[in-house]
C-alpha cells in the first residue's frame, strides 16, 4: 500500500529529497529480457530538470544503478532494485518555510499526518519521488514494446490558456514531442506556451497545464471488470502524480455534453479485427481495451511554491507573508511528459500480465 | 483484484443481470455498530430505476438481505454478506444484439476477453453490478457519519449542455438534491436538464452529464503518499463506474489554465485548526486531506444503448444496422448520484482505517 | 485481508453459525468451464457432519446455491457467488458458556478483540466458516483436474496414538479414503482410530489427529520465490484451519534429524522430464514444484469443547466449573479431510494462474 | 506478491548472490521512531556467516546502509530503503554445477520456472535473500519492543538427533542463546550439537535441525480470523525460509496425539487479565493472541549442497556424479536463529498495525 503499485508487475518506491538516494524495486519483470542501465537512463534524462530556462536550474545527474535482478544483460525474473543517489543531501533554502506551511503545498498535511517534518517539507510528495516511477516505467515500456509492439507517447497539450492543435494519434512520436523544450508538437502553440512559462517565472509565479498521452497497438481484451478497469487504473496512476488535478479518457468531460448517437463509435472491419470509426471511447469499452489507441489527458495545477509574496499564516495561525526562496519550477508539464508515459506503462504492463492468466 | 476494492474496509462484489442475485461481501466493518437492512435499503432505493419518465421503466424491487456479520442489530466485526435477488432472470430482448456488438458498449470487449457472451452482453459491465457497491457504500457512510460526522452529498451538475449554478458546498443536502427527479439542486437548470433527457428519449437517443460530490468534515491527515493519495483512490473509484469518462478534484482541468498566485489557497486560522480561504485544492494537498471539504466531479458519457438505428458491423464484420429494442435509460447521471456517494464513502472508510494505524 | 485468500484465484468467505447463511465469492475462475451445483455439493457432502457415530449428530443439509458467474452451465469469468443457508439460526445450548470462556476455545480472544460476543462464541472461528472454503475449493479442484490432470487426495493418518501405515502416494484415491467413516485407508488402523474416537466421546472427551495430503501431476515450476513459496502458501492455508497446530512438507520434522547425503533426492530421468528417486523434498525445491507429488501433513488438536467438567474461571476471573452441553464433535480429522483438500486446491489454482504470467 | 510480505508493515526484498547488492524497502514503519544503522546491524551480524568452524568460512561484512525514510535519527513515516552491498559479485566455484542440478536444491526448479540460470543456481533461493528480511525484521523488533514491550527470542532446540532440554519460555534471553556458537541455551546439548555439525562437515555432509522461538508480552487480540490467523501468518513466514520443512505452534504435532481434557488450557486470573495455567495453545486461540507467550518451532532440513559425491543426472538426463566444490554451510540452524526472530517480528508488527484499526 501507499508506496507500492501494481499487482503482478509491481513496484515499490522509496526516497525523498534529502536522503542518500531514491529508487524502486520492480517485481514481476519477465525473465530473459535484455536490460541495461542505458535503457532506463534515457527516460530519467527526459525527466531530469534541465539547464534550460523552462525548468529549475539545479543540476541533477540522476544516474541509475541496477542493484539486482539482471545478470549478463538479461533479466533473471527476480526483483530489480534500482537506485539513484541524491547529489545534495543537505537540507537548504527551506529555513523560513519550516515555520510557515506553503499554501497549496503538502507541508501542512504531512505535518498533521506524520507529526514530523522532513527537511524539504512534504517528504514523499517531493518531485524526486517520481524518479522511481520513471525508472520502473522504462522497464515496463521496454517489455510492452518488445512483447506487444506497444508505443506510448505523451506531450504537452496546454499551458495556461494556450492549447495545442489536435495531434495525429497514430503518428505522434517522442522525437516530435522533444523537438522543443516545452514538449508540445504544435510548434506555434509551443512558442506561446514557452512565452507563458517564461512570463510566469519572470512574475515569480507559476502556471498549470495539461499532458495528453496515447498508447498504441494494445491488443483488445486488457483491463478487468469493475474496480480494475483500464481507465480506473490509469486514473489512479495519474492522480497519484504530484500536482495532478484531473484525468479524462477519450471524450472525457466534453463527452458528457454529447448525445449518444454522436458519441457512439461505430464498428468497422479493420484487417482481421473489428475496429471503430471514431474513438470517443478512448480505446476502452466496459473497462477493457478494444484495440483502438488508448487516449487520455491529465491536468496539472500551477506549482504551489512561488517566489511572490503570499499572505498566509504560520503553523501557529499567526498572519504572515511567505515568499519562497531559491529557484522553483514554474511549470511541471514539460517534465511530467515522461512521468505520465511511465505510469501508463506500469498500468499496461500489469494488465498485460493479468490478462495472461485468461489465456 | 478486479471485483475487490479497498484494503482494510474491503468489498468483493458479485453478480450480473441474469443470475439469481447480485451482492457484496464487506470485510473490515468495525464491530458494535448498529446496522439494519433499512440502513442499506435507503441508498439502494435511490439507485433503483424508478417509475418516472427519466429512468427506465423496469420495476426492480432490489430488496437487500443481510446474510451475515450482524447479530441483534449490531455488527460483529466479521464479513457482512449482502444479497439482492434478481427479479427476472430470463434473458430477454437481447436477441438481435447477440450477433451485433452494440457500438461503444462492452459487448465486444467482453467477448474478446472471455470468449463467452453473458445473456445481457457485457456481463459485469452491467449497471446491476453497482448494486453491491451501493449496498456496501451505505455501510461505509454510516460508519463515517457516526464515527467522524462525515457527510457525503452528490448531485447532477450538468446534463448535456445544461449546467447547474455553483452550489454551496457547506450546505448542500440530499433533501435538496432529491427535490427533483433529475437530482439537480438548481431548479431552473433542473427543468432544462429534464427537458433534455425527455428530448433524448423521444429521439431514441441518450445524453451524458456530470455528477459533482462534496465530502464534508473529513479530519486532516487522511490519504497516503504516492500511489494511494486520496484523489488517486477517488479517481480509481469513479473511473471504475460504468460510463464514466473523467474525474477532476478541486480546480480540476480549469486549474490547469491558472497561475499559481491565483490558484494557491492561503492558510487562515479556523477555530482550532488551520484552514484555507479558497479551496482550489479540493480539500487535498499532497494527496492528504487538509480539513476542507473534499470536492470532485465525474463525467459520464451518454449511454451506448440507444433505440436509433446505427450503422455498424456484426461480429463477422458484415455491415448492418442496429436499433436496440426495449426501454433503455437515456441518461445515467440522476441514478449515478447515490453510486458516486457510495464509492466516495468506500474510499474514505478505507483511508480512515488506514489512518488509524498512524495513531 | 482476513476473510480473503489468494491473489488471482481469490476467495472471500462470509458467515458464522447463527446468521442466515454462509458462503463465498470466488473471483478469477477461468471462463467457459462447465460448472454445476452438483460439482460443488459432493465435497460439501463429505464435509457435512454425518449421522454416523463419529461426528456430531446435528443434521445439516448444507445445499449450495450458485448465485452468479455461471450461465447455461458454463462459467462466465465473473465472480461466482455461492450461498449455503444456515438451517437453524437460533442460538441455542450456549447459555452457560456465555459467562465462561471455554478453555482453549476462541470465546475469550474474540471477546477481547471485538468487544462483542457472537451467539456461538468464537464467531468466525466456527467450523461453519469452512463451508465457503470447501465450496470454493471444489471449483479450484475441478479447474486443476480438467486443465492439468491434478489429483488431490487427503486422508487421516493418525488419531491419538494410532498411526496409519504409509500409503502409496501414487495410488491413494478418495474411494479408498472414504471406505470407512474415519477416512483412513489403512483399515486395521482405521478400526483402532474409530475405537479411540468412540472412547473419547464416551469419556465426554475429545482427541486430536493428523491429516495427510498428496497432490499429484503438478507441473514443475509452480510456486514463487521468497514469500510465496508453494510450501509457504500451503502452510498459511493449513494453519488457517480451525484447530490446526502444525504443518510439515516432505520429510518435515523428521527431516530435521537427518544428514544431507541421506536426505537429498537424487535426480533421474523420468520419461521426458527430470524426476527424483526419493521424495524427501515433498515435491518442492526452493519453493517451486519439481514435478514429483507434493506431500504434506497437518496436525489438528483435540476439539476444545468437551462434556467433561473443567476447572476454569469465568470472564470476571471467578473460579468455576464448565461442562459443555449439547453434542460436540470428539475428533475433527475425518471431516477435515475435504477441507484440507480444498485449501490445497485453492493454493494450487492461484499458483497456476500466477505461473501463467511467466509463459 | 512473491517478494513482498505484510499488508501494513510491508517489506519488498531484492537481490541475489552475484549482483551489486541485496536489500529491502520497508513501508509502514511509524514515524518519529528513533532508528540508526546500528539498530539494524546487530541482527545482521548475528545472521552473518562467522569465521568460526560451524559456519561457512566466507567473510561477508554485510554492512547496512539506510537509503531513505530516516532523518536526524528519526523515522519519517516514509518507506525505509536498506542496502547491503555484495562484496564479491563474481560468480565462482559453481562451474561444474551449471550442468548438473544439485539434488534437493533449487537449481532445477528455477531453471524450469524462469528458463534462465543465475550464476549461483537458485537465484532468489539464495541464503543472501534473507539479509533483507533480517534488516527489516530488526526495525519491526524495535517497534514492537518500544511500543509494546514485546521480546522475541529464538534458539536452536535440536541438531540431528540431539535435542535441547526444555527452556524456560519466560526467561530465555538472547544472551543465553548466544553463549555458544551453536546457539543452544542447553550447554550440554550444545556440545553434542557442535560435535554433530563438526562431524557432518568432516564427512563432507550436512545435518538438519530445529529452531524454537518465543514471543513474550503480546497483548491479547492480535491476529485476524480465517486466513490471517496469527499462526497462519507465522506458518507462511517460516515456511518461506530456505530449507524449512515444518512449523508447529504450541503443542504442535504432539498435541495431535492428546485428549482434549489434557490439552485444554484452563483459564486463571493473572493480574488484571485472564491467563491460562498451561500453554498447549502456544499463545493463540482461534487465531488470535490470548496474552500468553506465543511459542513455535521450525524444522530445517540438512543443506542440499554437500562435498560428498552424489549419484545423479545432469540437465540432459545423463547419469553423473556431483561433488560440490567450495565451502558450504553444514548446518543452517545457528544462523537461522535471527532470521526466525526477524520473520516473527515482521508478522507481529503487521498484525499490530492491523489491530489498531479495531481500536
Helix-strand category of chain A: alpha+beta
Q: In terms of per-residue confidence, which ranges of chain A show pLDDT below 50 for 5 or more consecutive residues? A: none
* Helicity range of chain A: 25-40%
CATH class assignment of chain A = Alpha Beta
Strand content of chain A: 15-25%
The spatial strand order of the largest sheet of chain A comes to: 1-2-3-7-4
What does this structure look like?
4 copies of one chain form a homotetramer. With 359 residues, chain A is of the alpha+beta class. The first copy, chain A, has one domain: Chorismate synthase, AroC fold (4-Layer Sandwich). Chain A is built from 9 helices and 18 strands. In chain A, the strands form 6 sheets. Chain A has a 5-stranded antiparallel sheet, covered by helices on one side. In chain A, a hairpin with a 5-residue loop joins strand 17 and strand 18. In chain A, helix 1 packs across helix 3. The first copy, chain A, starts with a strand and ends with a helix. The mean pLDDT of chain A is 93. The interface between A and C is medium-sized, with 14 and 14 residues.
